[in-house]
């Protein structure tokens, strides 16, 4: 069995959040949501759920006045989750609401689960590696406790997966 250990961290994030006017949904943002639906991509990028969906800005809206749009374009072409980076390669990004900067997430994977005691499951709660592991883990082996699941329950689930793997390899 692969030895397991518990890793618990308290993250403190210090970021300058520029003063901004009250955010309003732009016509570009509404068009992006419509396009994602038309293209069959309106499901959670992490779990595939079609319930309680939200469109997440990969580079947050609060940084709209600070972002280098050429760098954002390069980033969106490198991590081209829906193919729009390639499709729109010859077009500049001039707005934080560009479709290439978006990711559809369910409530649990956007702002987190209803039980935030152990940190939650959302992109706003986890470092990117742990967040993405929710998409990339083997079936039944997600190391992040999910909504309604205790830390101990998640650990037992992962242990059971490892035990089955060992038995299959004997």
From TrEMBL:
The protein, known as: HNH endonuclease
Biased composition (Basic and acidic residues): 154-170
Domain of life: Bacteria
Region (Disordered), start-end ranges: 148-170
